[in-house]
Amino acid sequence: MSKIRRPAADRLPRVYEGPDVLGPLLEESGCALSVDDVIDEFACALEEGTPAGEIVPLLWELEPRFRDSAMAKRTFQNLFGLWDAVDAELSAEHGPLVDLGELDPDAPLSGRQVDRASARLAELDDGGWRKARDRFDNHQSDLATFVFECLAEHDPIAIETALDLTFETWWILEHSRGAERVPRASRAALSAAFAAEDDGGEPEPGLAGLATAALWEQAADEQRPLAEASIPLAERALKAVRRALTPARR
């Protein structure tokens, strides 16, 4: 079982170097959008409350193509940096956007709720983080076992990354909704959720976006890159986790 923490300091830097840098990176990676197109997409997503991690992977019609991990890292750090710049500009013009997701406890978590909760997790000190991780291991042991078994034939980095994201998903849901509203996932529920993966339903789009962004960030890591071939199965396992941790909605 993974015990590895992903501190905030290890996250991908969010630095926008300008259109002269990002434009060629997008073109080489197979993205048909210009930088201006991306800015428009980001502005619409921010106004709708869609998180960056959900919209960034959709900029490509197919999976992005990177010649090496350095190019992948620079592309994503520029995209997330551009997102921050667009967000800051919209906030300056219109003030904070209303977070409608907070008005309905049965609604999926909004992008801003997910971002805030993820930031709080990253801010935990070592003792607080260890306490939370131990509680996860004790109360959601079937989750960890399920994810481990799904990725058992893949390299250790894929397993560690998926387990860390499983923990983060559980923590954000409990922190945002309360422990009493987050089910203890059973193997039966996880297996059923995994089998139902192809029906198109996504219970928590904000958390799905966070997971997608984190997987591609790890793929771009120069020291411990996640094999891109592992990402689809990791995505499927993590979607099953979100399903099993989300009670049926009215």
Give an overview in words:
61% of the residues lie in helices and 0% in strands. It is built from 11 helices and no strands. The protein is mainly α and 250 residues long. It has 2 domains: 18-94, no CATH class; 104-111 and 119-245, no CATH class.
Count the strands?
A: 0
Structural class: mainly alpha
How far apart lie the N and C ends? 35 Å
Radius of gyration: 18 Å
Q: Summarize the main sheet.
A: none
How much strand content do the residues show? Answer: under 5%
Task: Please give a handful of descriptors for the protein shown.
250 residues, mainly alpha, 2 domains, 11 helices, 0% strand
Task: Set down the secondary structure blueprint.
Blueprint: H1 19-28, H2 35-48, H3 52-55, H4 69-94, H5 111-123, H6 126-139, H7 141-150, H8 156-177, H9 187-195, H10 205-219, H11 231-245
Brief summary:
The chain is mainly α. It is 61% helix and 0% strand. The protein folds into two domains: 18-94, no CATH class; 104-111 and 119-245, no CATH class.
